[in-house]
Design brief:
It comes from Paenibacillus sophorae. Residues 4-241 form the GP-PDE domain. One of its GO terms (molecular function) is phosphoric diester hydrolase activity. This is Glycerophosphodiester phosphodiesterase. The protein has 246 residues and is of the alpha/beta class. It has a single domain, classed as Phosphatidylinositol (PI) phosphodiesterase (TIM Barrel, Alpha-Beta Barrel). The chain contains nine helices and nine strands. Strand 1, helix 1 and strand 2 (34-41) form a beta-alpha-beta unit. It is globular. The protein binds SN-glycerol-3-phosphate (G3P) and magnesium ion (MG). SN-glycerol-3-phosphate (G3P) is lined by residues 9, 36, 38, 51, 112, 143, 165, 186, 210-211, 230.
Length: 246
Amino acid sequence: MAKILNFAHRGASAVCPENTMAAFRHSLTLGATGIETDVQMTRDGELVLIHDEELSRTTNGSGYVKDKTLAELEALDAGAWFGDGSFKGEKIPQLEDLLELLLDRDTVLNIELKNGVFLYPGMEEKVIAAVRAYGMSSRVVISSFNHYSLAYFKKLAPDLEIGILYMEGLYRPWEYAATVGAKALHAYHLAVLPEFVRDAAQSGVVYHPFTVNDPKRMEFLIDAGVAGIITDVPDVLAGLLARKGL
Ligand code: G3P
Ligand code: MG
């Protein structure tokens, strides 16, 4: 049985400010074997890692990511908002910073294209170029709630894996996945039933449910046969996998 991937959602986001280098680095010490991150594009076309389209929840800035230059974003603090303030000084990383961190490892990188609200034309091409430049083609899964973008991505880069992100109960999503060119379903975890996992496997499609923080729910999904789990607490998942001898 292939190892079940332990994706740290936005890095170790339960104990570090999400989508910062501190969160990514720490997740690796907690046993993550994969990292999930959200990518958006600046006004001057650079790829940055941040979840919200708007800056104020996780930085000391305001306004939209799409309206700022990279230099303007680099001047912001993306760590001070979290916990006791000890992460003050953390920055919004560029995608390249994370690719660099993963260079000499076997960690799988799940890059979520955050292009559901703003489409960020040209972002797919830039992500492909960055992934190729760092030799990560065989270690990435590109996901998005924007399935038009995913289908376009797959046309541009047929060798890169894509994962269909969705929230609700799609009917036979493994068949839908094939129409988009995906081999992975990144489903909201409550939309996953064991029989779906089994039927998807028959078509060569795997599940990577998100965002699962309850150990009981993790165990249910592991027993159902998912190929990976996206979690804010990779240490909890790593402990569970170890106890189960997986
Ligand atoms: O990729 C799984 C999950 O990150 C999707 O939702 O909003 O946390 O990016 P969100
Ligand atoms: Mg995400």
